[in-house]
């Protein structure tokens, strides 16, 4: 039993998914069938395949008995052996790689930014686009999935189970993919800007760098956890922190005056606009 998953182009995100799937905790009897028995990673050069090999050496034994084979320059054989193919190449290499293999009857999972389901549909009818982000490397990633019409419910569950191991994952219609690229994909950079600003505020007022950083990290992490655990709208929680005539409301008013909110909203929107232009080549 079990199927083979081929990973074409095992770069940063391909490796994050490989780690997450391989190192997933033991599956329940219901989800066991969603895990591959074998993963074949494909890379174009021996050097890069070597990097993937190093990564795999750092793994323990897979709780789901997954076996990994690293290859280079062997895409055709890997795809022929696989039922599910994860495409993780750089966008400009995707066409060449897809033309070199036959994925027509495979479930094609694409990490390639800007490639639409329609474009991928020239190669396979069974397509899932995946937008994820770099915290996936540490198990705190977010992923947005968008399926082509032909992907069966069984295969949707399979993708959700596999990709969910990077952190969290949801399904959205493809028309939201550019927005997801900005919010999820670029999101960490936007949050890092906020973290850096908080740190600098501490430094400016005399708190040393190390301590400023520690405070900023925990404030962002703790606030996210608080929103998640209470299920409250952020504005409700924000107002709970605002004592009348107090410090917090004073700080918030200055930030609003400086346009922090609209700066963030318009910045994310601009990133989405650039993402949509990437798709129209
Ligand atoms: C690709 O594979 C499918 C079935 O696996 C086959 O029907 C089709 O002819 C193949 N296409 C090419 C171009 O070889
Ligand atoms: C999707 O899942 C079904 C099982 O429900 C499987 O038989 C089929 O091969 C899968 N489709 C693709 C394209 O991988
Ligand atoms: C063409 C290709 O996919 N190359 C990748 C091979 O693996 C390394 C990591 O080991 C990636 O950085 C390359 O992008």
From TrEMBL:
Assigned keywords, A-Z: Amino-acid biosynthesis, NADP, Oxidoreductase, Proline biosynthesis, Signal
Tagged with keyword Glycoprotein: no
One GO biological process term: L-proline biosynthetic process
SUPFAM superfamilies documented for this protein: 6-phosphogluconate dehydrogenase C-terminal domain-like (SSF48179), NAD(P)-binding Rossmann-fold domains (SSF51735)
Higher taxonomy: Eukaryota, Fungi, Dikarya, Ascomycota, Saccharomycotina
Transmembrane segments: none
UniProt-listed PROSITE patterns: P5CR (PS00521)
Pathway it works in: Amino-acid biosynthesis; L-proline biosynthesis; L-proline from L-glutamate 5-semialdehyde: step 1/1
Enzyme class (EC, first level): oxidoreductase
Name of the protein this chain belongs to: Pyrroline-5-carboxylate reductase
Domain (Pyrroline-5-carboxylate reductase catalytic N-terminal): residue spans on this chain: 5-114
Signal peptide start-end: 1-20
Binding residues annotated for NADP(+), in chain numbering: 8-13
UniProt-listed Enzyme Commission number(s): 1.5.1.2
Record-listed NADPH binding positions: 75
Catalytic activity of the protein: L-proline + NADP(+) = (S)-1-pyrroline-5-carboxylate + NADPH + 2 H(+)
Keyword Cytoplasm: no
Domain Pyrroline-5-carboxylate reductase dimerisation: 174-277
GO cellular component, one term: cytosol
Entry similarity comment: Belongs to the pyrroline-5-carboxylate reductase family.
Molecular functions per Gene Ontology: identical protein binding; pyrroline-5-carboxylate reductase activity
